[in-house]
Amino acid sequence: MTGIIDSGGGLRGIYGCGVLDRCLELGVKFDYAVGVSAGSANIASFLAGQKGRNYSFYHDYAFRSEYMGLQNLVRTGSFLGLDYIYGTLTNSDGENPLDNAAMQNSDTRFEIVATDAKTGKAVYFDKADMRPDDYAPLKASCSIPVACPPYVINGVPYFDGGLSDPIPVDRALSNGCKKIIVILTKPVSEKPKQRTVGVASAMLRGKYPMTAKSINTYKERYLSSLALARELEGQGRALVLAPDSTEGLRTVTRDRVALHILYRKGYHDAEKIADFFF
Q1: Distance (Å, rounded) from C-alpha 62 to C-alpha 78?
Q2: Least reliable range by pLDDT among 65-69, 204-208, 243-247
Q3: Nearest 5 degrees, angle CA 212-CA 198-CA 86?
Q4: What is the pLDDT of residue 191?
Q5: Rg of the chain over CA atoms, in angstroms?
Q6: Residue 234 pLDDT more than 90?
Q7: CA diameter of the chain
């Protein structure tokens, strides 16, 4: 059983977009897929067979004020326009609709990671939790703490899935995967920034103490999952794909040239997948 993990990473997720676009061209399929944050949106388009769709979101739409920015924060209370991204643009009457029927009809089991804001624990939505014009799990998985308020589904507030399960290798293994592709969006040697983590934790400690606790242990969780992925790679059971450089991109850095370069890196690195599987 084969699996793929896309760990997201804001606009750096365009690297994973490149990987998956090339997989579509090569006809590579997976039995199981799990996406974190922007990685979940990448996988949704991949399973729908919509090559190039996500590229537009990173390279074009991200430069619109409705997508992200301080103006959006003042207007809506969220730096990211999640309802715009996964609603206005993505819905059936949107500018670039997701082919929900094709995604649902895919033979691949698809899970989306989000973090329960009250418990700080990972929650795994299934693609069946997404319906035409209702992509709430994608919004929840991409709700970055502090930059966004938690996204509420059925009365439960959720934050970005990367807080609780940044590289869901254990999840893929527990779902029966024997060989796994792991997509990272920064070099393997690059570690999480503890200063940024501390600031976010302090800001959330009052209202969401368990999320704050989860943020404090994020680095340890990330490094542990990465170590497991590398261990599996040494055993020939995993292939870790990561850019050699982020080209200066951070989570919400908007630079069209750098974004395109990172996309091409992912597209090129995907060539390794065929050899790994076959």
Answers
A1: 14
A2: 204-208
A3: 60
A4: 83
A5: 17
A6: yes
A7: 51
Give the HSE-up count for residue 209: Cα atoms under 13 Å, Cβ half-sphere: 1
Q: Give phi and psi for 114, each to the nearest 5.
A: -135, 165
Three-state SS sequence of 132-194: CCECHHHHHHCCCECCECCEEECCEEEEEHHHCCCCCHHHHHHCCCCEEEEECCCCCCCCCCH
Distance CA(105)–CA(119), nearest Å, equals 33
The tokens for 156 are 């439960």
Using CA atoms, how far residue 99 sits from 32, 130, 257, in Å, is 19, 12, 28
Burial of 111 (0-12, 13-18, 19+ CB in 10 A): buried
Task: Please give the Cα distance from 53 to 102 (Å, whole number).
Answer: 14
